[in-house]
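User: Working on a comparison across species. This one is UPF0284 protein KME60_09660 from Cyanomargarita calcarea GSE-NOS-MK-12-04C. Can you predict its structure so I can line it up against the others?
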Amino acid sequence: MIQIYTQITQGEKWIAKYRGTSPVFACVLGFTDTGLIPGISAAGLTPEDRKYTAIADADFLYYGTGTKPQYPLPPLTAGASPVVITRAIVESLNIPVYLFNAGLPQPPTVPVIDLGGFPAKCLSQGRAMELATVQHLLEQGLLWGERLGNKNQDGYVILGECVVGGTTTALAILTGLGINAAGKVNSSHPVCNHEQKWAVVKEGLEKMRGRDWDQETQRNFGSVPVSPSPLELVASVGDPMQVVVAGMAISASRHCGVLLAGGTQMLAVYALSCAIAQTYSLFWCPQQVVVGTTRWVAEDPTGSTVELAQLIAETPPLLATSLSFADSGYPQLKAYEQGFVKEGMGAGGACIAAHLSHNWEQEQLLKAIEAQLVE
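Assistant: Here's the predicted structure for UPF0284 protein KME60_09660 from Cyanomargarita calcarea GSE-NOS-MK-12-04C:
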């Protein structure tokens, strides 16, 4: 039920080490106005719907089907929100859940840990966030990663996310770190909108010139100017989730395993973690960290997830759940097999955890997930 695509030996060691141990699940919610660009994301039918995706997903993850939500799961072009997958697993296996607000446009309807962040502006402006906000969010990530890691020293921490438009900010961060990610990222669309994403990212990276960075230390990759520090890069073209999860991964890795639950976005977070640790001389244990996603992401024919992972200097083990919805009786799940949705809210990581901790196979996963869709 778990495929390993990169760093196979290291991935096998990680799986062997944490098989049978208990995880905790932390999900960091954030927002970027990038997600409001028409057509940029399918995580909500309209830009207005996408303003509430993270809040609705958090509501469902916390309450499940038993409570009428203040913000129902947003309508999608096709498919069901991946939070249905995550909720099925954390509910069935009693996995402790921590929800963090890194910067949302309106307060969540469920108990969350507020990190004092703000939503990001569209990355095309090259001024997505204030540098002071990014620094504060990194400190919060380091603090909470330390707490969660200390609490679970015999197990591992699953770090998930919900940021609509996050694969576009991920492309910006990867490119800004010198990784040739254009044309390789994933999206919630069945066919990735690479040209649209790259146009937005190129505009944002070029506008970084206008910010008050030290001009003498700016570097260039091709015609795209790159910020001299990872935190300045996030402030220019990132989103609030990225730096929080990077901080969490760094500090939690000192105490326990870390499963970065996502695809393109978590590869960007991993690369960012490497850059932050190196730039600011922060000790961490990257061998404790893996990226875990769904096979719909890892094998997406309209992206190049495996190649993208291999382009990161300290390539992480890339794992994916083998979960299939081909035999599901629900069309909104079958849509995943046509390339819709693919991943989100730590869904792939949760499936990996279900197999690691309780040896769940395809039948058990599918049964639990479908139970969430029963009216």
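For your comparison, note: The chain has one domain: 2-371.

User: Helpful, thanks.
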